[in-house]
What we know:
The protein is α/β, with parallel strands linked by helices. It has helices at 73-80, 90-99, 102-118, 134-145, 165-180, 198-210, 227-233, 247-254, 264-270, 277-282, 303-314, 318-332, 359-362, and strands at 4-12, 20-28, 31-37, 46-49, 54-57, 59-61, 121-124, 126-127, 151-156, 186-191, 214-215, 217-219, 238-241, 259-262, 287-289, 349-352, 369-374, 377-380.
Amino acid sequence: MNALAVTGIGELVTNTGPPLHHAALVLTDGAIAWVGADHAAPAADERLDVAGRAVIPGFVDSHAHLVFAGDRSAEFTARMAGKPYTAGGIRSTVAATRNATDEELRANLARLVDEALAQGTTTIECKSGYGLTVADEARSLRLAGEFTGETTFLGAHVVPDGVTEESYVDLVCGEMMAVCAPLARWIDVFCEDGAFGADAARAILLAGQEKGLQPRLHANQLRPGPGVQLAVEVGAASADHCTHLTAADIEALSTSDTVATLLPGVEFATRQPFPEARRLLDAGVTVALATDCNPGSCYTTSMPFCIALAVREMGLTPEEALTAATAGGARALRRDDIGVLKPGARADLAVLNAPSFVHLAYRPGVPLVAAVIRGGVVCKELR
Ligand code: NIG
Ligand code: FE
């Protein structure tokens, strides 16, 4: 493959040290081959001069639910008028998803993945969870797998209508797991009142681990509960949401390698309090930021929006927020090849129409991503 030099970088965030200024990158075979000063850039077959713009690692969105059909904007309107979010809304998306054709679900997925890519997301995780039958969960994972290798079996999203919790947990751990595990990398459970309790969640996570899936968990979203400590107990890569944390939860996370994945778009769209990110960071917990894109609790694909919220509402510095949205997401997916720009890493990066990454939070709502390169391929041309 040809070598592509990206030159004229005004500010380069590598996540290996402080940002570099007047920098350049060389990409070959889909990977970063060289990082250094602009004036010292080696010759390459092609050159992309970004004329002083900032360059960052592509965003790693480690939590999204993109296989769905239907619209729940009326729920959002009701929440903005004061109605609380409940897990039960999931069932209306389940009905719409089961009724959709493969083509309709694929088109919706493609639209959302493209939308995310155009905003700088070069890796996206995608969960099942709106099928809740063996066939519909398997279909969701097959479709998700057409777009990402980071697929997550979330058959335990909510107990579907017409079955008891006990019989559904048996199904998820048994036949559904057997069919879905080969189609997924991760096992996830919505551990919450109104969804699954700690004992059911533990049984499902362990059944997934037995089939070779790695655990991650929706934890402590709506109220304090056992989720975060269960995530740590089973060695989950990530405890996601963490909206309601006790001191013991933070202590458990800080002595583990479980990442706290914060989803501030959910707090925005459900009027919940924002998680105490500062306490997590000060305790030494690795924090990731992700969108949670889904039709119920947060319908955004925008990592820049999540960064802006994290800075404005959770007390992260712009640098901490960008780190969480890139390297943090990579940790939450246990990946060393993404979220960082260093020789050998995947050539996944975004060019910003801004002199500094700080503009991601400083200019909220503005489409700042000027170009995107994923695996060395220019997916969005500089403009
Ligand atoms: O992460 N919390 C569980 N699942 C999603 C919401 C799903 C829905 O409301 O449709 C979440 O917020
Ligand atoms: Fe979620």
